[in-house]
Amino acid sequence: MFAGNSLTSRDARRNPIWWLALIALCLAIAPGELIAQTGSSSSQDSSSTQNSNGQKQQPPPEAGGPQNDTGPYAIPKIDPDKQQAKPAPPPAPKPTEGMPSYSINVDVPLVSVDALVLTKNGQFIPGLLKQHFRVLEDNVPQPIQSFGLTKGGFTAVLLVEFASTPAFQVSRRQFLYDALRASYAFTDQLQKNDYVAVIQYDMKPSILVDFTSDKQAIYGALNTLRIPGFSETNLFDALYDTLDRLERIEGRKEVILISSGLDTFSRINYDKILKKIKATSNVTIYAISTGFLWRNYMESRSTGLGSSMRNMDYLQGDNQMSTFAKLTGGRWYNPRFDAELPEDFREIAAAVRNQYTITYRPTNTKLDGSFRKLKVELVQPGTDKPLIVKDQKGKELKPLVLYREGYTAKHEVE
User: Is residue 43 part of a domain?
Assistant: First the structure.
């Protein structure tokens, strides 16, 4: 271009016209290059940014994995600190319309046994522990859950026979006197925390005074027993009615039965009254027979078949009274003289105020309404050997353990 000039290249660079020409040439070339660079930058931005047509997109910052010209393989990152949630449990089946829902719940009730431990002289033996007792139900050992010595007042019913029996007509009040003396002797032993109701029976039972701790009220009720009106002695009916009333009272109760043991005209038979006694819980019967002196007198003077039959009746009455007491863990007394009555009732008072109470939950969980036989034994701790009890002089004693012979299990439909 400048070859035809006569000036050398060094001289040309010194010429201002040369520099002007060079600047003009650069200005002519720069816009094209700038446009090319700008187009290239725009092409790069368009390749990495998704337009409205959605050809390409920028991967989300939390995505991982390789990338290529057509877009990323988006794999969400897993936080190792977070555990995968457990799958939700399947929904419960919907109950069928019109069908009630049922649940089975078996509740085996606790059984409470009152055990009275006495010497052969009727003295209470204190100081026994839980380890000294073993309870068997139908000959199966039962684990004892709780144990304690029960002290304090008692709730008792004084059930007195008051009828114009043949013995009353002959002996002129001999049986009545015995019953009243026994009743008065029992009342004398009462304390302020004792509650007693008085019921007399002949053809039917009659409540003379409801439960009270007032001795004077009890004496007043007994003083009304002077002239009997009926000759029937419906013992079974009277005892059944008394037990039925006591079922509505909570806690432990006693029945002090003062009677000849004879039954003449009851609607309830002997088997039914035994069943009622077995089914009644927390009731102890203490039976005191009357008319011992008159019976001995008549036995020595009377002969013949009639006298033998009458003696058999009284023996049967004694057996019934003894059975009532034994089934419930009580005692039967047959005093020969009036002087024995205070001592007998002192023993009864000590028994009802000092008893070992044992509770357990039966291993037989069936609620079948069956009768379960009980047995309470005194054993040496950790063994099945009988417990050796000695008095203060070191003499071995044979303790007498009184308890109810059994109980009727609850029926599942009750």
Answer: no
Residue 163 has pLDDT above 70, yes or no: yes
User: Are 346 and 361 in the same domain?
Assistant: no
Q: Does residue 209 sit in the same domain as residue 328?
A: yes
**Listed residue (194, 118, 132) closest to 351, CA to CA:** 118
Say whether both 258 and 232 belong to one domain: yes
More confident residue, 348 or 374: 374
* DSSP-assigned states of every residue in 155-224: EEEEEEE----HHHHHHTSHHHHHHHHHHHHHHHT--TT-EEEEEEESSSEEEEEEEE--HHHHHHHHHT
Q: Alpha carbon of 402 to those of 30, 119, 277, 362, 374: distances in Å?
A: 127, 11, 16, 20, 11
Inter-residue contact 319 to 392 (CB < 8 Å): no
Q: Is 109 exposed, middle or buried (0-12, 13-18, 19+ CB in 10 A)?
A: exposed
DSSP string for residues in 297-357 = HHHHH--SHHHHHHHHHHHHHHHHHHHHHHHBT--EE--SSTTHHHHHHHHHHHHHHSEEE
Number of domains in the chain: 2
Give the global pTM.
0.64
Residue 323 structural domain: 152-352
* Residue 28 belongs to some domain of the structure: no
Calpha distance 170→155 (Å, rounded): 36
Cα angle 123, 182, 335 (rounded to 5 degrees) comes to 60
